[in-house]
Amino acid sequence: MLALPALVAARSRSHGSGRERERPSAESLEKATQHLTDARAALKGRDLTGAYRLAALAFREAPSPEALFVLGQVALAEGRPVDAQDLMRRYLADPNLDAGSDADEPKEAARILELPRPAAGQLSILGDRGALVTIDDHVVGALPLVRPLLVAPGEHRVLLERGSARLEDQVRITVGRLGELRCNFASKALVLTLLPGVLWVNDAS
Question: Is the pLDDT of residue 165 over 70?
Answer without folding.
Answer: yes
